[in-house]
Specification:
The chain is built from 17 helices and 13 strands. It is an alpha/beta fold. It has 2 domains: 2-39 and 281-383, 3-Layer(aba) Sandwich (Rossmann fold); 48-268, Glycerate kinase, domain 2. A 6-stranded mixed beta sheet has the order 3-4-5-6-9-10, with helices on both faces. A 5-stranded parallel beta sheet has the order 2-1-11-12-13. Helix 1 (16-30) packs across helix 16 (358-375). The longest helix is centred in the middle third of the chain and has 22 residues, at 213-234. This is Glycerate kinase. Belongs to the glycerate kinase type-1 family. GO terms for molecular function: glycerate kinase activity.
């Protein structure tokens, strides 16, 4: 019997590859003969590099500027001429200096440095996963690292950060790295927000990055000015991108990717399923196990477990969810395509205990699933809930 393990990370506890290994340990403790394939996944945000390197990509380490200018170590992944960049590694909340948000000053410059490093390696396809950013600079920092310039009315170069865009009067794109013209960019994002307005980058996402109401108002004004000046510099591409789904992703980095880099937006989990080869391999399995830390209503809209469940259901393969906790009823889970759901909180109601002991609890759940498989055929496994 072949079992594919395709979990996402259990945030704050274990990475996706670790979750897969713990589940595998539990399964093998019951049946060492199981054919177990470890294929951890992600939704395009944090954990994407872990997922693709587990499937054959090579991890590359670079030193780049963090969100507020400090040097940080950031990884990206390469296979042949394809590069996968996880924006959070260079410009994310997790790499903020001392963990302190800086909503007006945080920059995507480091993300642009990772793009340049991919170009230096000869990559002609670049996937930009944009979850978990600490920035609201419209991707201006990323473009600056690639050769664009941003100046105020006095001809001075703007300092980093979205706040400074309130004074931009000139954007020069002629200095952009010419190699960009030969690159196909994919914006891996489940966010469909526009750049501006009540559903835009500043209004919806900046508060999650430490912005006060005054900061949000300032950033909205700054991004609007940025758009108007960009439209003068770029023309119709800048105008077409303003309301395009995903332009508001990662504090407007989606806008820069769509307008300037001619990126195509795709759901993050779809991209990861393709890059890891999981989409093609699911049909070879007898059972697929997926999951994440919290399986809730948000999980039903583009998160990794739902993407895996959808692919498995299309292939006629039963899929089981494993999570730290779930707020979904068995009926909702069944309707989403899950044959069963195992939660760590079923073993211990204390969520703090579950987070600290996630590895051991996942191994225990793996053993439970293994025991169930030993006494049930595929048809029964497909039907239980």
């Amino acid at each position: 019997m072949r079992v594919i393990l395709a979990p996402d990370k259990f945030k704050g506890s274990v990475s996706a590859p670790e979750a897969a290994r713990f589940l595998a340990e539990g399964l093998r403790s019951v049946d060492p003969g199981l054919d177990i394939v470890l294929m951890p996944v992600a939704d395009g945000g944090e954990g994407t590099i872990d997922a693709v390197t587990a499937s054959g990509f090579t991890r590359v380490v670079e030193r780049v500027q963090g969100p507020t200018g400090e040097s940080v170590q950031a990884d990206f992944a390469v296979r042949g001429t394809v590069a996968v960049i996880e924006m959070a590694a260079a410009s994310g909340l997790a790499v903020l200096h001392n963990g302190t948000p800086s909503p007006l000053l945080a920059s995507t410059y480091g993300t642009g440095q990772l793009v340049k490093a991919a170009l230096d390696r000869g990559c002609t396809e670049i996937v930009l996963g944009v979850g978990g950013s600490a920035t609201t600079d419209g991707g201006a920092g990323m473009l600056a690292a690639l050769g664009a310039t941003f100046k105020d009315s006095a001809g001075r170069h703007l300092p980093p950060g979205g706040g400074a865009l309130a004074t931009v009067t000139n954007i020069e794109l002629g200095g952009l790295d010419r190699r960009l013209g030969g690159v196909q960019f994919t914006l891996a994002s489940d966010v469909d927000n526009p750049l501006l307005g009540p559903d835009g980058a500043a209004a919806v996402f900046a508060p999650q990055k430490g912005a006060s109401e005054a900061h949000v108002a300032h950033l909205e004004t700054a991004l609007e000015r940025y758009f108007r000046v960009m439209a003068n510099a770029l023309g119709t591409a800048a105008v077409d991108a303003i309301d395009a789904p995903g332009s508001g992703a990662a504090g407007g980095t989606g806008y820069a990717a769509l307008a300037v880099l001619s990126a195509k937006r795709r759901p993050g989990i779809d991209v990861v399923l393709e890059l890891t080869g999981l989409a093609d391999k699911i049909g070879t399995a007898d059972l697929v196990i997926t999951g994440e830390g919290s399986l809730d209503e948000q999980s039903l809209f583009g998160k990794a477990p739902m993407g895996v469940a959808t692919a498995a259901r299309a292939a006629g393969i039963p899929v089981v969810a494993v999570c730290g906790r779930t707020t979904l009823t068995p009926e909702v889970l069944h309707g989403a395509g899950f044959a069963h759901c195992y939660a760590l909180t079923d073993l211990n109601a204390d969520t703090e205990h579950c987070m600290k002991n996630a590895g051991a609890l996942l191994t225990q759940i793996g053993a439970t699933i293994g025991a169930r498989l030993a006494t049930r055929g595929k048809e029964e496994e497909n039907s239980y809930v």
